[in-house]
Structure formats: C-alpha cells, structure tokens
Amino acid sequence: MVKEVPESENRPDNTAFTQQRLPAWQPILSAGIVIPMFVLIGLAFIGIGVALFVTSRSIQVLEIDYTGVEPESPCFRCSSSDVNNCKCNLAFSIDVLFQGPVFFYYGLKNYFQNYRNYGASKDAKQLSGDVDKFTDPAVECAPYRFDSSGKPIVPCGSIANSLFNDTFKLYQIVNGARKEVPLDGKGIAWWTDYNVKYRNPSITPLRNAFNGTVKPVNWPRPAYELDTTDPANNGFINQDFLVWMRRAALPNFRKLYRRITEGDYSEGLPAGNYTLEISYNYPVLKFDGRKTVVFSNVSWMGGKNEFLGIAYLVIGSLCVVMSIVMLIVYAKFKFPDED
Amino acid sequence: MLRWIRQQLGFDPPHQSETRTVYVANRFPQHGHYIPQRFADNRIISSKYTIWNFVPKNLFEQFRRIANFYFLIIFLVQLMIDTPTSPVTSGLPLFFVITVTAIKQGYEDWLRHKADNEVNGAPVFVVRSGSLVQTRSKNIRVGDIVRVAKDETFPADLVLLSSDRADGTCHITTASLDGETNLKTHYSVAETSVCQSVSQLEALQAVVECQQPEADLYRFVGRVTVTQHGEEIVRPLGPENLLLRGARLKNTKEIFGVAVYTGMESKMALNYKCKSQKRSAVEKSMNTFLLIYLGILLSEAVLSTILKYAWQAEDKWDEPFYNQKTDQERNSSPILKFISDFLAFLVLYNFIIPISLYVTVEMQKFLGSFFIGWDLDLYHEESDQKAQVNTSDLNEELGQVEYVFTDKTGTLTENEMQFRECSISGTKYREVNGKLVPEGMTDDSPDGSTPHLVGEELLFLKAVSLCHTVQISYDQPDCLVGGGDPFSHVNGFSSNHMEYYASSPDEKALVEAAKRIGVAFTGTSGDTMEIKTFGKTEKYKLLHVLEFDADRRRMSVILQTPSGGQVLFTKGAESAILPFTTSGEIEKTRLHVDEFALKGLRTLVVACRHFSPEEYIDVDRRLNAARTALQQREERLQEAFSYIERDLQLLGATGVEDKLQDKVQETIEALRLAGIKVWVLTGDKHETAVSVSLSCGHFHRTMNILELLQQRSDNECAEQLRRLARRIKEDHVIQHGLVVDGASLSLALREHEKLFMEVCKNCSAVLCCRMAPLQKAKVVRLLKTSPEKPITLAIGDGANDVSMIQEAHVGIGIMGKEGRQAVRNSDYAIARFKFLAKLLLVHGHFYYIRIATLVQYFFYKNVCFITPQFLYQFFCLFSQQTLYDSVYLTLYNICFTSLPILVYSLFEQLVHPHVLQSKPGLYRDISKNAMLSFRTFLYWTLLGFCHAFVFFFGSYILMGEDTTLMGNGQMFGNWTFGTLVFTVMVITVTLKLALETHFWTWMNHFVTWGSIAFYFIFSLFYGGIIWPFLHTQDMYFVFVQLLSSGSAWFAIIIIVITCLFPDVVKKVFYRHLHPTSTQKSQSLSAPQAQDLSCLESLCCYQHGQSGCTRLARLLEHMTGQCKASANNCHASSRSNRSWSDTENFYSNDRSILTLSPIEATHC
After folding, report:
1. Are A189 and A323 in the same domain?
2. CB contact under 8 A, B1103 and A337
3. Closest CA to B1038 of B1029, B1026, B1047, B1050
4. Do A283 and B374 touch (CB under 8 A)?
5. Chain B, 77-116: which have a CB under 8 Å from a chain A CB?
C-alpha cells in the first residue's frame, strides 16, 4: 500500500536565501548620516525655493471681477436676470508692458463643476463621434437626454448644457479710438482632446449628422455652429467647448479663454488704457457665484504660484535648522554605548 | 432520505447501538434475527471539496470571514444603488482575493485528492468466494477477510485472524500512527489462528462484536464468536488483536484479518486532527484595529451624510441651474435618499478597511514559515531532523512568549537511558565493565573469573530481564521468515545481532544492562520467554501481562518458572510499589532510592510474588473474567490488577541515568535573560526533579528553594503558601525557586489559586514534579487565564505532554524517542531543546516585527489612501465625487503598494540574528505586544491622517490658486488633481516603508523602486490609450500632462519630503535620546554590514571621549576626511571578536564562520 518513506537527507540547503543571510544593505538613520543629508537637502531646497520664488515674482497677473454685484460696477445692469443680450464695457489700464504671450482666462467662483452627478452627465461615446449615441444618448445625461418633445439632445448632459457663454472683446484705447486686440482661440484646449479624445462624426457637412437631434437647452446655437469663423472649430472639437468639458477640480477655477499672440500684441500688452467688451449671458448670482477675467503671462513653471517657492524655502530652512539642532543634541548627549 | 441528510449534517448519530456486529467474510446467518448494518466503505476522504461543490462550498467558506463578507456587502450595495464608484472597484479586488485564496485551497485539496486516490486505489488482496482476489483498497467492506504481506501497511482496521506463524502472532510497527518504532506483537485468537490458508478461512464461521468506532488508538473492546462443530466459542478481543490501518506488518510473511472499521471509521481517520484553532495575539489586535477602522469609516460616512444635507438645505447649492435633477431624483422619498447617500459614502470610503490585509498576512505567514524549516541552526545532524511547522498562524506568537512550560524527560534530557546503579536486598551496586560491583568494593576480581552472583542478585536480574515488554529485532530478519519460532535461529547468531526495541527507554536500558551482566533476554516465542543466565537457557511461560498504565505506575508479568511454580514480577515507581511490599529490605531500599534520586537518576523498584497453585487459579480466573468483559472492562481490569499486585516481596531498585541534552543550561539562561519564565513540569520524583533542575541551570545554587510538598489538606496548604509568600517578601534580594508536587498543586489550585499565583510570580523558577498529564495542562491554563493573560509556550516530547501542548498559546513538540504524538499535536516541532532559543529569540523576534509592521503599515497606507477622498468631499458639496480614477482605486492595494510590504515582511531583520541570539535581553523590547500597542497604533493612524492632509492640501494649495501649471497656459481638471494626489501618495507610502526597512536585500530594492516605476509606467500606459471597453475616457493623457508640468514635479518632491521629514527627525532623536536596546545593538551588527561607510563607523569611538571630540570627528567625517583612526577601529574589532568568542556557544559552529571579525576593520 503506502510506500515507506525512504530515509532521506532532510538537511536544509545551506544557501544565503534559506538561511536568511542574503547580502543586504543595512542603513541606520543615525545623526551621522542624517545631519549631512539634511544640510545638503536644506541647502538645495533653499536654492530651488529662491529660484521658484523669483520666477513666480516675475509673472504678471491682472484679475478683474465683472460679476456686477456692486451698483457701481459697469456690469451691474446686466446682472439682473431679466435682461437679455446685455453688453457691458470694462475699462482698465496697464502701467507697464504686460509681457507676452498673454493668456486671457475667465474665472468662476463658487461654481461646482466637480459635482458628481454633473460630472457624470455626459456621453463619452457620443462625444467621440459615435452616431448611434446621437439618437440614444447615455442615461447619465438625464435630465438633458431628451428634450420635452422626446428628441435626443446632442451633445447631451449637464456639462455641455451649462457651457460658459459670455464672450469678450478686448480693445486698446489708442488716442481715444478703440483698437481691437486680436484674440487667438487656438491652442487653449489640450491637443489630445481635439485631436484624439473628442471626435466629430465623419459625416459632411457636419450639420447632417445632427439631423433629428436638438441643441442643448441653454445653447443659443447648435454644436455645429459654435464657431462661425472657423468651420474646423465646430462640433465636439470646438476648443471653447473642450475647455469647458474638462471639469475643474475645485469650486473656484479659471479656464483659458484666449491667447494674445498676434499682430502688434505678440510682445505683450503695452502700457495704456483698455476696454473689455463683455456680452454678459452667464447667470451666477443665484448661487453666489462670481465671474472674473484674468490676464496672465506664464513662465516655464506655469502661472503665478508663490506657494511652491515658499514651501521650498520653508522646508529647506527647516532642514538646516533641524540639522543644527541634531548636531547640538548629538554633541551633548552621547550616543549610549554598549555596556 | 431525510435521515441520511440529518446524518450527513451530524444531527443524528449514525449508529444507534453501542456495538457493531461483523460477520466474518460476510457470511450472514441464514436464519434468525439479522439486521443489516450500514458501514462506511473503505474510502479515505481527506479532501474537502469535489469538482462540483468546490465553487459553492469554497465561496461559502471564504465569505464566512468577516472581512470578505464586508466587501461582498459593499459590492452588492454598489450593484444595487447609484454609487460614486463602479462595482468593479471593489469587485475586482474582492475577486482577486477570493481567487488567490481559492486557488491556494484548491491546489491543496487537489494534493489531498491525489493522495486519497493513491491510498484508495492501492491494490489489496481479499478473500472472496474461496479465493484470493486482488482489488482496490477502497473496495474493502466491513467483514472482508484481507491478506496483508510483509512490510505492507494495513488497509483498514483488521482483527487479526491468523498469521503464517503457528501461534498466530505477528509483529507490527505503528511508526506512522504514533511514531513508535518498536516492534509490537499482536495476537490472534487460537480458534482462528489455525486458519492459515484461504480454504480454511472459507470454512471459518465467526462473528466479531466490537464497540463502535472511536478515536483512541489504544482502546479496543470486542469479542469473537467462533462456531466450531456447532459449538460457539467466545473469545475476548483487545487492542492486541487489532491491526490498525496505517501500521505496517513486520517480520511476518503474511496475515489474514477481518476488516472491522473501514475508511473514515478507521482509527487512523478518526485521528485526523483539524488544525489547531489557536489565534495569535497579533491577530486579535488586528481585529480590534479593524473594528476601530470600521468605526472611523462609519463616522466619516455619517458625518459626510449629515454635512451633505446641511449644504443641501439651501436650494442654490442643492440644485443650481447648471446641475438640474431628474424628476426621479426630485420625487424619491427623502428617507430613501438619505439611506442611499449614506451607503454611497460608505462605498466611497470603504477602502479604509484594507481588503488585501488578510491575504497579505496569510501569504506572509505561509511563506515566512518556510524559514523555520530551512534553518540549519534548527537542524539536528544526528537524527537528520529539521524543524517542522505545523501551523504558520502562530509565527509571530513565538516572539511574545512570557512563560515556557517544559517537560523534563526527553525534552531537557536525551531520554537515552544508561543503567548506573541498583540496590539489591539493601546493598547498593554499581555497574562496572559489565559487572555488578557492590558499594565500597573495587573491581578487583580477575578477568575471566566466573561472576558469582548470589541468589538474590540473580532473582533480581531475572526479574529485570523478564518483567518488560521489550521486543527483539534481528539484523537479518529475513531469516525468520522460514519458521515461526525465532529461537531456532538464535544460536546461529552472535547476540550482537540482536537488538532490543522498547516503547519505554527505561526498560530497554534495564534489559540491556541485565544482558551485559549476564542474564540475557533472548526472545519470546508464543507465550514462552527465554533468558540465558551465563549461557544457560531458561524458559519461562508467560501467563499474563498486567500492562503499564499511568495511574498504577507499574507493570507486572505472571510467569510459570521452569520448575513449575507461578511467580509475579512487578516493577514500577517506588510510590506505586513500596506500599504493597510486605517483605524484603524495604527501609534500606527506600533510602537507596532517595539517594539515586538525589543523583538525578530515574528510579524503579522491582518486586515479586510467588503464588501458591490455589492463589494462581483465583488470579487466573479473575483476570480472564475481567478481560472478556464487554462492559466496563477497564474498571474491572483495574480491580483485578490491584487484587493481584499486593503482598509483594521487595527485590531491589534500579537507578537509570538520563543524560541532559546539549546546551540546556545555556538555553534556559538565555530564556531567562529574555524575560521568559521557565517552569519545568515533570512526572519524576521531587528529588530527581530538583537535582536535574540544578544540573540544567533551572535552579541555581544560590537560589532560595521554596517547597510546597506533600500537603495533605487545604488548610495546611494555604498555611504553607502564606508562609512562602512571607518568606519571599522578607527576602527579596535573593532569587527564589519553587518546587511543587502534583498533589499539593491540585490542592493549591482548588482553593488558593490567587495565593499560589502570587507566590509563583515572585519566583524566578518553578518546578512542578509528580505531575499527571492533565495537571500539566491545568497549570498552563491557570497561567493563561491569570489577569495579565501572559502568552504561554509548552514544550514536550511525549504523549503525556499533548494536553499541555494543546492548551498553551504555542505548543512545541520535541522529536524525541517517545513517539510522535507530541509532534503531531504541536504547532512547531524541533529536534532539541536548545533550538528553542533560536526559535524564540531570533525567529520569533523577526516574525513579530515583520507582522506587526505589516499590520500597522497596512492601516496607515489605507488611511493615506482614503482620507484625501474624504477631504475632497468638503470641496465638492459632498456629492460623493471620487478623487481618484476607478482604476487607481482598484489597483492601489493590489498592485501599487502590495509588494514592498510583502517583501519587507518576509525579509526584514532589524538586528542581526547573531546579536539577537547572543543578547536575549532584546526579546524584552517586543514583549507584551509592544509594537501593536494602542500607542503605536495611534501613531501610525495619526501619521496616516497627517500625510493625507499634506498630500491633499499640498496639492490643493498648488492648484487651488487656480493658476495654470503648464508653460502653455492651459488648465488642468479634476482628474489631474486627483492623479497628483495619488502620485504623491504612492511615492510617499512606498518611501515610508523604505524608511522602516532596515534590511535591504536586492529584492527590497527591486520591489520598492519597482513599485514606483511600475506606477509611472502603468499610468503612462493607462492614460496613453483610448480604452474601447471603458465607459469614459477621463484619464486620457492626464498623467502625461501632469508630468509635462515642471511645477507638478517640484510639488511632488516637496510634498513627499515634507511628509517624510518629521519622521526622519523623530527617528534620529529617538535613536539618540531614547534608544531602545534593539537600536543600540543595531550598531553592533553594523560593522558586519558590507557597505560599511565611514559615517556609520562613528560608533567605533572609544569610551570616555567628550562630546566635543566626537563633534569634531563628526565634522571631520562630513568634510570627507574619512580617517577613522586605526586605533578606534581596532578597539571595535577587538571588542567584536571577544563578543563572538564568548557568546557563540548559542549558535552552532557553522554560524561562527559567517561572523568573521575581519569585516569590522573595513573603516
């Protein structure tokens, strides 16, 4: 029946692995290593911090609130809800040359693009040009899936429906006359968004793809007419639309509106007086929202952000301070020797 | 059918009657009252599952675990209601965990199936319809006559019918059952033993009646009724007639037996032990922590739900124009909404309970336990035995032991008996060169002179060589095959070829000694025992054996002398025999016995009784009646025995030495230094026990030995205890040792537990002698349940230690000579007592540190993981928006952070093993579950929260100023924000473990840096493709965009450093201001590290240097002038060498080689 176990050699292998003798590096976090390490890190961080701080300091930012809450605000008239197609002019002046390229942002405050239902309310397939989804948008789009007559809404969902629709025109006042500053609407969205992720259906002309569908409720024009000046910037790859579709992480956010790179303004905005003509459409007062416009130039590290520089300086100095404290402790209290 | 189901479920006992009736060869009575009985078939099923029930049964088993069940609930909630994360996020990890476990269990079960099939399919020979038929083992039915040939194992429990020997006996070994390798003789009933051929068996009409199956290997009660010539002959059956499944036939050509217990009803199968259900202290704290985390989870979910409704009270937040609700959402009932919101938050935060914790812990324990078996230091060269792990659940408990209860014989001692002295009729003798030399006389008899033994001496030696159960095995046992009578061959061999086998080593030593002196036991044939007295053969007929048992503590044989008289020889413990002696040198012998005991010898007393013919008839009748009784056989036998074993004539006493094992003293000393209290529990006499205790270092000469002995009454005992307590109080400078005997102990335990505990705790060593097996367990339980709930360890080698081994938190078996029962019931088994030191001090220490850090780290990393998610809710109106993408949520615990901690928990060595072993005091550093105390738990949890705050608010401040982070002015979205937090988290959490790691093997490097690299590569890959099957493409290019931002890189670095910075500072300060002894010894092992850097050699400074010089030297080092003076290093290497010289006796020779002092001169 069961075979008798032969008298086998039970001796375990004598290898580094089985005997837990693998060669190993055994660092000890003692003052001896940590102090010089801290000094090095601290000095490096202070250096980086200074560089970051200086870089950040050199960036110019101009932020103007145009919500129109205060009666003296030029947009006060437009902010009441019963006014339609309201325009207001915002005058401001620049003292020194605003180094180009200048980026023109609009900002919203107290606006929760990160609301979960809101974020889910879109149809990724539809936006990637799947025509099947034009007739039957995803359920997540509700209540912006079908309009009251039962026609599918394209693009469906809350995000698309709430597309920011204030428009801006910037004029420089040169000798009392208004000189329009050319605004570049290209390159404001991620390259991958308008080249890969979002696609129009491959039907020409584009409007035929939208037959049998209706535009989002809040939109003045259907998706294929978002940019009347450039036919290629329409439908789901319209860059203003794409910028809006990339939801902001936090309730106060800015989105890139235009770049000022062309003509006389490629070097930046010269000192002088400017007027911003705003067509005021987007209601924010109901939820205590604020609207701003922001002009900013950028460095290699992005926009003005003093946090990084300060953080590096603080941590760097802390490292140095701690290493000095450790040195004192080390000198004063002997490392307890073996006894 | 219903009954069958109930039976299967165990509601109904399957057998109603107390006995079963087996018709040999299934020849049922032709007429009359035959009730067919159902017996189990001979299939052994050790497997748990079949192909069909594997999935449901395994799933059921797994979901009985509370953690798995919890995740199942979460998964179902996700399926049912609209929750922030897709069911995949918790379904996939759950699936992963369940699958891994199922695969492991399935594989183990497959192995069992394979083993079962091999066993069940083995060919066997069965007598059927008049001929020998070969069939498979599983086809054997109860009642079948089975033929077993030499060296085969028995396929079922058989009642021996006949063997090829005329007397119908056979020899077997039960090594695979209880590990006893000695030969045992089993007998058949005379009426059946004549049926040595198939045809004769065919004619046999017999019925076996026996008790229903039970697990006790050594109990069998039955009778066989043989019908011969129309006459029914009834014979008793006992364990000596039963051949157990799994035992092996030896020295016998073939036997026939009838199967009485088959398959799962055989005694072997009934003895299959389920694994011990012991749970370690770590596991208990782990469960407590899980509950705390469940509390955190629930409170976070409740808080979030409440805050959500607080926000939503205002309409402008609840439903702004850009985020209208559907009609369905508006109309659903508020209570339902509230509940579903609560559940959604629960789902959102559920990852705080680490799903992979159990899997990782199990994997760690399973894989980690291999190191014990692999350890060469725990390998015993002589017996070719390595340490054995029976359960890996308790690895870490080895590092927590506070009390060690050890058996003496075979555990502290070799259990290798040497006959030393004896006392015959009041004269003491020593054995010198094979001669008995009376005390006071020198061995001056000229060589070759015939030894002159007087009658008493001769009688004593004859008693010793006849009263035993020793078997003989010959070197060439094949020669025996020919005939049934071994004696015919004995003359042809020199007696050197003869070897004694005995279950008791004492007996073997005595028989061997008698042989050396001149009275040699040469064998048993049938019921005849043969001895050779100085070459002259004498034959004794063996009439009865009164077997040894632990209550009587003696055994006897009744023999017919060659001259025809009947004599009883008995031998046993002195307390079991002296009271029954009536003649002989009782007082002198008692003195001698005490003297032997003082020398540490094991003593036995030998006595005899001559029967008159009338007496013998009475004795014979009583014994036979008791043996054939079906009811209460044991009680009646006891009665008969005590009737017979009285009026004894004292012959003498023997003293047998049991050598101490190697390095017992050092081991006990090491355990004591480690803060472990050692209790020796033994069945020996108190004098023997004390003397062994002294010689093994359990008691010191300087110790004040307190005694609690021979207490007769409660009051007396209490009085003595109080007296002892007072003595301890008065004299607390000196160490105390306590000796208790079994009887006093049971008194003390009955009424004065507290007082007794009080005394015990103040004694540094306790010795309990005269202990019965159950008493040992009781002592362990007493300590275990005392208010401090100390962790106990029991170590022993014999069957009498099993109860204590099972009772203690950790049970350790010694693979000794007393069978394998202790080993089978233990959690760990080692070959020698000295291995205990390494097992506890090194392995226990390592496992504890590993698993404790593993548990703490798991909770920490999940707090880090989920708290940012919680914080994010404050910024998204508690809308349950997830911060991380679903794939990241799913893979965080499975892929990104799982391997480093697993590798850490397998390989970490905080201190070098040699240091741990040579400085047992380090064991105290981890005692009382120190690394899983509430304080450390709080530290890790708070650390997790702090880190989470830093991740989240660091990223928040960076992005919250809502400026662009990219050089092209474009903006990031919410997923980039989440990915930034996640990236920082993965790196920080991995590096935090790197900070904890002290032992960096290439594997640690590989998995630590590999995990971070894998995260980056995976993210690039995941974000680089439009995944056709995914619902949304939210993560497309998010990671690349994040990495293309310089600010993000700087932010990642600063956040990670900020998190780890305080930790490093804390570590350095603790190391220098409050170093634990473990940390102190790390520097000891440091010089051995290969990459000894100059800076690390700072510890080489000599004593007495002032802080200033140290500082100066430090600065010197920092500026790169690495000139640690040769002086200093010499000092260190010298001290190192001396340390290895003096302390290396704990480790064996091989380990010293690895500890070369040269390495210390690196600097």
Report:
1. no
2. yes
3. B1026
4. no
5. 84
Query: Which site among B268, B323, B911 would you substitute to test the A interface, given the most A Cβ atoms closer than 10 Å to its Cβ?
Result: B323
Domain of A40? 32-59+300-339
Same domain, residue pair A227 and A336: no
In whole angstroms, what is the distance from residue B95 CA to residue B93 CA?
Answer: 5
Return the residue in A4, A8, A20 with the most chain B beta carbons within 10 A, the one to mutate for interface testing: A20
pLDDT for position B1113: 54
Res. B1135 pLDDT band, cuts 50 70 90: very low
Give the tens place of pLDDT for each residue, A35-51: 999 999 999 999 999 99
| Residue B407 annotated in active site | yes
**Residue B1072 and residue A303: Cβ atoms within 8 Å?**
no
How far apart, in Å, do the first and last CA atoms of chain B sit? 82
- pLDDT of residue B363 exceeding 90, the answer is no
In a domain, A136, yes or no: yes
Shared domain check, A313 and A287 = no
Q: Give yes or no for a contact between B486 and B525, defined as CB atoms under 8 angstroms apart.
A: yes
Computed over every residue of chain A, the mean pLDDT equals 89
Q: Is the confidence at residue B203, as pLDDT, over 90?
A: no
User: Which tokens in the block code for residue B509?
Assistant: 């030593």
Quick one: what percent of chain B has pLDDT higher than 70?
86
Binding residue positions of B for Mg(2+): 407, 409, 797, 801
Which residue of chain A is at minimal alpha-carbon distance from B1051? A308
Superfamily per CATH, domain B413-658: Calcium-transporting ATPase, cytoplasmic domain N (3.40.1110.10)
Residue of chain B minimizing CA distance to A334: B1107
User: Of the given ranges (A41-55, A101-115, B575-589, B1014-1028), which has the lowest mean pLDDT?
Assistant: B575-589
List the structure tokens of B724. Answer: 């002892």
Return the domain boundaries, chain B: 139-271, 357-367+842-1077, 378-412+659-834, 413-658
DSSP conformation class of A278 = E
Asked if B1071 has any chain A CB less than 8 Å from its own CB, the reply is yes
Q: Does domain B378-412+659-834 have CATH number 3.40.50.2300?
A: no
Which chain A residues contact residue B246 at CB under 8 A?
Answer: 2
Give the minimum alpha-carbon distance from A175 to chain B in angstroms, rounded to a whole number.
31
Q: State whether A103 and B964 contact (CB < 8 Å).
A: yes
Residues 296-335 of A with CB under 8 A from B: 296, 298-305, 307-308, 311-312, 315, 318-319, 322, 326-327, 329-335
Q: Residue A309 burial by CB count (10 A; 0-12/13-18/19+): exposed, middle or buried?
A: buried
- Among A25, A188, A258, most B C-beta atoms within 10 A, so best to mutate, is A25
Query: Residues B778, B779, B780, B783: is their CA dihedral positive or negative?
Result: positive
pLDDT per position as a tens digit, B782-815: 888 888 889 999 998 877 788 888 889 999 999 8
Surface-to-core class of residue B407, CB atoms within 10 Å of its CB (0-12 exposed, 13-18 middle, 19+ buried): buried
State which residue of chain B sits closest to A310, comparing Cα positions. Answer: B1054
A289 min Cα distance to partner chain B (Å): 10
pLDDT at residue B1142 tops 60: no
| B736-741 and B677-681 strand pairing | unpaired
Distance CA B246, CA B70 (A): 44
Residue B739 has pLDDT above 80, yes or no: yes
What pTM does this model have? 0.80
Q: How many residues does chain A have?
A: 339
- When mean pLDDT is compared over B538-552, B581-595, B750-764, the highest value belongs to B581-595
Residue pair B1094/B1123 in contact by the 8 Å Cβ criterion: no
Residue bearing tokens 């063996």:
B542
Query: Are A307 and B973 an interchain contact pair (Cβ–Cβ within 8 Å)?
Result: no
Name which CATH class applies to B139-271: mainly beta
Tell me the ipTM for this assembly.
0.95
Confidence (pLDDT) at B4 = 55
List the single residue in B with minimal CA-CA distance to A192. Answer: B1037
Q: How close is the nearest chain A Cα to the Cα of B249, in Å?
A: 11
Domain count, chain A: 2
